[in-house]
């Protein structure tokens, strides 16, 4: 069946090949590049960008080679509100957000998809490494590039209008295919880090928006061991850049254990104190009918992170997880994504953890 497909083209090799595959499959494909900044020069460029003027030009050239219409859509205001401001407010609240996950949720599969549906398109095509099998979201075959984690925030209704042509292919093969197709982005480096922080200095970016707010760094017993310029600059599990003047009694490294925006306090301690056995998640999204009671599955707690065996218990707007073995460095604000093998069952936003079994 021929579909009207809107191909989201970032300017990278993945989205270019995804658009080419959709067109080759016989679909009526239109390429669109999302302009996500009112001042593109302020975003990362070259190997680290994904939404700059350079990327827009690369996307246009790829569309010309494929032979499809191409447009640029201005989504800068929506991106700023839903991704950039959310990023800042989450850090201010002591949480650790994932902006790429939020971009998928709010921009690519909300703002972009909504506009595509209003214009009569049947599906949005992206270069994500994941698979859709009769509406079931599965991991991509390239384990190192799998992006099912950051797509798990999509609803079944959104996934019904999604297309991921790359999920059955490795990144190395995609680059070779791009070269065969004559796409100039075949050797373009992957984007990394956060696109809207031009110099990669997250702490400086947050300080500019949240200001300086000095506060204590304390150990697990409440003894002050240092001072910080803003609790927002720290993340759970962080080891480097703690600016602690007093060494630990046993000489071992300290890690960030807790961030309290209310008291502007950062708590540090030994690595083993990061062990988490229980996790609470909020706003769960289920990709099929949620189980009525507790069930066994696996959970991934960060993008490209380790997968843990667990027991999951849905409870209305809350998801409770008990891990078979402790995980470390689990931060509120990240996503807990549940899997049955390579199948995504659902996700929730981590809101709380317990380091000692109840």
TrEMBL record:
What's in the keyword line of the UniProt record? Answer: ATP-binding, Cytoplasm, Disulfide bond, Nucleotide-binding, RNA-binding, Transferase, tRNA processing, tRNA-binding
Enzyme class, first EC level, given as a word? transferase
Q: What is its EC number?
A: 2.8.1.13
Residue ranges of domain tRNA-specific 2-thiouridylase MnmA-like central in the record: 204-269
- Give the InterPro entries listed for this entry: MnmA-like, MnmA-like_C, MnmA-like_central, MnmA-like_central_sf, Rossmann-like_a/b/a_fold
Q: Which residues bind ATP?
A: 8-15, 34, 127
Enzymatic reactions: S-sulfanyl-L-cysteinyl-[protein] + uridine(34) in tRNA + AH2 + ATP = 2-thiouridine(34) in tRNA + L-cysteinyl-[protein] + A + AMP + diphosphate + H(+)
Q: What does this protein do?
A: Catalyzes the 2-thiolation of uridine at the wobble position (U34) of tRNA, leading to the formation of s(2)U34.
Name it: tRNA-specific 2-thiouridylase MnmA
Query: Organism, per UniProt?
Result: Actinomadura algeriensis
**Lineage of the native species?**
Bacteria, Bacillati, Actinomycetota, Actinomycetes, Streptosporangiales
The gene name reads: mnmA
């Amino acid at each position: 069946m021929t579909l009207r497909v809107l191909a989201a083209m970032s300017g990278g090799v993945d989205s270019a090949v995804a658009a080419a595959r959709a067109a080759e499959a016989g679909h009526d494909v239109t390429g669109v590049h999302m302009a996500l900044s009112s001042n593109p020069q302020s975003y990362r460029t070259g190997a680290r960008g994904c939404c700059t003027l350079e990327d827009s030009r690369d996307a246009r050239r790829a569309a010309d080679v494929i032979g499809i219409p191409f447009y640029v859509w201005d989504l800068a205001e929506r991106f700023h509100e839903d991704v950039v401001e959310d990023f800042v407010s989450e850090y201010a609240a002591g949480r650790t957000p994932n902006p790429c996950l939020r971009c998928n949720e709010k921009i690519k599969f909300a703002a972009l998809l909504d506009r595509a549906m209003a214009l009569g398109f049947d599906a949005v095509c992206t270069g994500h490494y994941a698979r859709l099998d009769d509406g079931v979201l599965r991991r991509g075959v390239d384990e190192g590039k799998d992006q099912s984690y950051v797509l798990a925030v999509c609803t079944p209704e959104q996934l019904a209008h999604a297309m991921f042509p790359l999920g059955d292919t490795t990144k190395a093969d995609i680059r070779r295919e791009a070269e065969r197709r004559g796409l100039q982005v075949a050797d373009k480096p992957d984007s990394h880090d956060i696109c809207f922080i031009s110099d990669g200095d997250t702490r400086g970016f947050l300080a500019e928006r949240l200001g300086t707010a000095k506060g204590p760094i304390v150990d697990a017993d409440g003894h002050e061991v240092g001072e910080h310029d803003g609790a927002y600059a720290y993340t759970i599990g962080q080891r480097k850049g703690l600016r602690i003047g007093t060494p630990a009694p046993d000489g071992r490294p300290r890690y960030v254990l807790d961030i309290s925006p209310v008291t502007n306090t950062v708590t540090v301690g030994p690595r083993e104190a990061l062990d988490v056995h229980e996790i609470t998640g909020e706003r769960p999204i289920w990709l099929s009918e949620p189980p009525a009671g507790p069930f066994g599955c696996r959970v991934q707690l960060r993008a490209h992170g380790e997968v843990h065996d667990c027991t999951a218990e849905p409870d209305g707007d809350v998801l409770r997880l008990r891990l078979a073995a402790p995980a470390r460095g689990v931060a509120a604000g990240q996503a807990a994504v549940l899997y049955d093998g390579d199948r995504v069952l659902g996700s929730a936003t981590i809101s709380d953890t317990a380091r000692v079994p109840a």
